Amino acid sequence: MARIFITGSSDGLGAKVAQRLIKNGHSVVLHGRNAQRAKDATEACPGAVTAVTGDLSSIAETKGVAEQINKLGQFDCVIHNAGLYRGPFRKTSEGIPALAAVNTMAPYILTALITKPKRLVFLSSGLHFSGSTNMDDVLWLQRGESQYNEHAAYNASKLHNVLFAKAFARRWPDVTTSSLDPGWMPTKMGGESASGDFEDSIASYVMLAEGEEAAAKRSGSYFTPGKKEDIPHKIADDVYAQDQLLQICAEVSGVKLA
C-alpha cells in the first residue's frame, strides 16, 4: 500500500484518479481549495484518509497545505494535479496572475516544503510544446495585466512543470520524478467535446503513483495517456533554464530548496 497525496482532487481527473487508487488499496489524501471543496473531495472519494485545504493561488495558503501534509507523515507519492486553464489575469495578493500562481508557483512551493516523497508527478500538457522558453518573466511580474495572454500563460505553465520534473530528477536522485500530459479529457476543464479516454489517462496516473512498473522508475520521464513515454520540448533538458525557473520561484515565494 502506498501513501499518495493529490492536489486538486475535489472533482475531474483528480477525483477519478483518487477513486481508482483507493480501489487499488492505497492510502490517499485529497485536497480542496477551501472547506467546501475539501468536503466535495471526500464525498466524491469514499475511503480517502482525509482532505487538506488551501487556495494554491496564495503563497501563504500553499505553505499551509505543505504544513498540513507534513503533519500526516511522509508520503510515497505527491501528484501535483491542481491547475487552472486560461481565464483572466485575476491578480493575487502577490501581484501574480492566479494561473501562474497555481500552475507554476504552487508545485514549486509544495515540492520544496513537503517532506521528500519517493515519487513526484507534475501535470503538464501537450500544449507545453507551444510554451515560451523565455525564463525572464515566467510569473508576468514585469509584463503585468496589460500584456497578459491567457493562452500563452497556460502553455508556458505546462512547460514549467516539465522543467520542474527534469530539475528535481537531476537534483534529487533519491526521488523518482515524472511529468504527465493527462490528455484532452471531457472534464469541466477539458469540455464536453474532448475526445480523450478517461481510462487511458487514469492508467498513466496510477502507473506513476504506484511506481512499480519499469517505465515509472525512470526519473525525469514525460508520459502521455495509455502509459506511453514520450519526448517533451527540447528545452526541458536545459539545465540553465531549469535553474532559472527554480531561482525565480524561490525568490518570489521566499522558499529555498534544501
Through-space gap between termini: 28 Å
Number of strands: 8
Integer tally of domains:
1
Shape: globular
Number of helices: 7
What do these coordinates show?
The chain has 258 residues and is α/β, with parallel strands linked by helices. The chain has a single domain, classed as Rossmann fold (3-Layer(aba) Sandwich). The chain contains 7 helices and 8 strands. Helix 5 (150-171) links the parallel strand 5 and strand 6. The longest helix has 22 residues, at 150-171.
What labels describe this entry?
7 helices, Rossmann fold, 258 residues, alpha/beta, 8 strands, globular, 39% helix
How would you briefly describe this protein structure?
With 258 residues, the chain is of the alpha/beta class. The protein has 7 helices and 8 strands. The chain has an 8-stranded mixed sheet with strand order 3-2-1-4-5-6-7-8, with helices on both faces.
Which secondary structure elements does this structure contain, and how are they paired or packed?
Blueprint: E1 3-6, H1 12-23, E2 27-32, H2 35-44, E3 50-53, H3 59-71, E4 77-80, H4 98-113, E5 119-123, H5 150-171, E6 176-180, H6 198-210, E7 221-224, E8 228-230, H7 239-253
Parallel strand pairs: 1-2, 1-4, 2-3, 4-5, 5-6, 6-7
Antiparallel strand pairs: 7-8
Family: Belongs to the short-chain dehydrogenases/reductases (SDR) family.
Pfam family, one: adh_short
Protein name: Short chain dehydrogenase
